[in-house]
Specification:
Helix content: over 70%
Number of helices: 9
Number of domains: 2
Shape: elongated
Length: about 140
């Protein structure tokens, strides 16, 4: 809509976007931008940098998981993301990643090769075996 096009112009100029979209949507937008600024560098995670800390705050954790799901373009991306999550994140966040990612991969016809690559790594294989057991109960 034109109101968000105007908001984009205002934001790019460093001005408040509330006059274009309203106070409520502007507040939500600014809250989103604050979370985005605090989210870890997910592009580095995708490249295999596991030294990056997993965030502690729940909204940052959720944003990180969804950001990784959205960036999962190649098998290597998924393997690197899983390695980081298994090493750094509590199990429930790794499970959320798997739960959101696997249907996406299945829909793209990429689940089998990704699964094969994940099973080649002992730490990821152990996680997936436990995940499968939990999901079948």
């Amino acid at each position: 809509p034109r109101s968000w096009e105007m908001a984009n112009v205002l934001f790019a100029a460093g001005l408040d976007i509330a006059p274009a979209v309203g106070i409520g949507p502007a507040s939500e937008f600014y809250a989103f931008m604050e979370i985005l600024d605090k989210t870890p560098d997910l592009d580095q995670v995708i490249k295999g940098n596991t030294r990056i800390e997993f965030p502690g705050e729940p909204s940052l954790r959720y944003a990180s998981i969804m950001g990784l799901v959205g960036r999962a373009k190649k098998t290597e991306d998924v393997v690197n993301s899983f390695n980081w999550l298994v090493e750094r994140a509590p199990a429930e966040w790794v499970q959320l990643y798997a739960t959101d990612l696997f249907p996406l991969l299945r829909g793209r016809g990429e689940l089998a090769p990704v699964h094969a690559a994940l099973m080649e790594q002992p730490n990821l294989k152990a996680f997936l075996m436990e995940f499968t057991r939990l999901m079948s109960e």
